[in-house]
Amino acid sequence: MQEGFIRNINAEVVMEGIYVLYNAISKHEQFKVFEQQAWGIFFNTIGLTIRGFCTAKGADELDTHVEDIKAAGGVKAFKKTTTLT
After folding, report:
1. What is the rounded distance in angstroms from the CA atom of residue 48 to the CA atom of residue 31?
2. Which of 31, 38, 62, 85 has the fewest C-beta atoms under 10 angstroms from its C-beta?
3. What stretch of H or E contains 78?
4. pTM score, two decimals?
5. What angle do CA 20, 24, 30 make, to 5 degrees?
6. Mean pLDDT of the chain
7. One-character DSSP codes across 10-75
8. pLDDT at 1
């Protein structure tokens, strides 16, 4: 947090919230009604949560990281193997 990527947050509370959201997405039926691949659900929930506690500098770094993953085919490979239906 001292490097300027993340706002002043209570990290334990945030991580617990992300964990609860992850469990809801991956282990329960709540998100299956959207018939979306898991990466889309994760990106639109956990990804937005992470972006919300980033500073502008952190959001830029996050964007770069996501683009690097896409360029490497990581997201494509994840999409092919993981679907919530």
Report:
1. 16
2. 85
3. helix 74-81
4. 0.69
5. 150
6. 81
7. -HHHHHHHHHHHHHHHHHSSTTGGG--BHHHHHIIIIIHHHHHTB-HHHHHHHHHHHHHHHHTTHH
8. 53
Q: What are the tokens at 70?
A: 């896409």
Q: What tokens does 26 get?
A: 């991956």
Name the residue with tokens 């990804």: 47
Q: Which residue has the tokens 């679907």?
A: 83
Tokens of 5: 């990527």
What are the C-alpha distances in Å from 18 to residues 9, 24, 53, 66, 70?
Answer: 13, 10, 12, 18, 22
How far is the C-alpha of 40 from the C-alpha of 47, rounded, in Å?
10
Partnered with residue 6 across adjacent β-strands are 54
Distance CA 44, CA 51 (A): 10
